[in-house]
Amino acid sequence: QVQLVESGGGLVQPGESLRLSCEASGFDFTAYRMSWVRQAPGEEREWVSSVNTGGTPTTYIDNAKGRFTAYKNNAVNTLYLQMNYLTDEDTSVYYCPVNVLGKHARGQGTQVTVSS
Questions:
Q1: How far is CA 25 from each of CA 7, 17, 45, 82, 101, rounded to the nearest angstrom?
Q2: Which of 18, 19, 17, 47 is nearest to 34 (CA)?
Q3: 81 contacts 20 by C-beta, under 8 angstroms
Q4: CA gyration radius for the chain?
Q5: SS3 sequence of the chain
Q6: What are the residues whose beta carbons fall under 8 Å from the beta carbon of 47, sequence distance 6 or more?
Q7: CB-based contacts of 116: which residues, under 8 Å, 6+ apart?
Q8: Tens-digit pLDDT profile for residues 69-109
Q9: How far apart are the first and last CA of the chain?
């Protein structure tokens, strides 16, 4: 059974940092390209970043370039998102969904709130 557990969110002030984690189990994590997406209340889901199977290359939404770094640790089946210089526009619930053998899975998400 595919399981994804996101964590690391919280309440921070503009300009601060957070590191999100996504612990994966139930599938061969090393063989899958993993992504971060986010969804704010009343908004559409927004893709944030993707990391290829071996950890590179990574891709980012334009407003995350230079601020966010996504990476995988295949040894511990965990995806990370280091977020620096956070702004209120980053406030959202962050998820790490994956499609395994045609079946979509995601965790409960982790809330990131940026507010002064």
A1: 15, 27, 23, 21, 14
A2: 47
A3: yes
A4: 13
A5: CCEEEEECCEEECCCCCEEEEEEEECCCHHHCCEEEEEECCCCCCEEEEEECCCCCCEEECHHHCCCEEEEEEHHHCEEEEEECCCCHHHCEEEECCEEECCEEECCCCEEEEECC
A6: 35, 36, 37, 61
A7: 13, 14
A8: 999 999 999 999 999 999 999 999 999 999 999 999 999 99
A9: 40
| Nearest residue to 108 (alpha-carbon basis) of 48, 42, 39 | 39
Copy the structure tokens of residue 111.
Answer: 């809330």
**Is-contact 107 5, C-beta < 8 A?**
yes
Q: How far apart are CA 113 and CA 116, in angstroms?
A: 10
Categorise residue 62: left if φ over 0, alpha if ψ from -120 to 50, beta otherwise.
alpha
> pLDDT (tens digit, 9 = 90+) per residue, 7-54?
999 999 999 999 999 999 999 999 999 999 999 989 999 999 999 988
